[in-house]
Amino acid sequence: MSLPLYPPECQAACDAQQCFDYGDIIPLDWLQEHFQLVPPDSGKFRDFKTYQLRFLSAMDRFRSLMLEDYKKALNSERGVGYRVIHPTEQTFHTMDCLTDRVARECEKAMKSLENIRHDMLDNQQMIDNIDARSKVSMLRSLNKKPDIGFSITPKLGKVNEEAG
Q: Around Cβ 65, how many Cβ atoms within 10 Å?
């Protein structure tokens, strides 16, 4: 019998590679057990937050290991676990997630750039602000949902060709 890998998320990635295939959901309970984390029973908010941060930290390492070592991307299924994304879905999923994140960040940046005390800016600062807003606007216009010829049916984990 061989020694388990350390830290626990390394062993969890190795075990998950053997136990879960594309389209499967890795349950939160399975992850918790394999990360060797026990949820607090004290009912204290601080203990829960500490546990939550440890789980998320382990999950980040696990996710990276699954992707880089085993070429399996994961998608969070709220309250259930993490679905192993099929390679045929991975490009679309990645670009879809990126598009959403860029859109959110552009929205936050634009709010910050628009909601500024213009009366306190000198001419150069006004020019810089206008330039920054135009760059964010340009980035927004480039940030479109991917159109790569197929759609995903998440519940089935299958790729369907669009009729067209």
A: 20
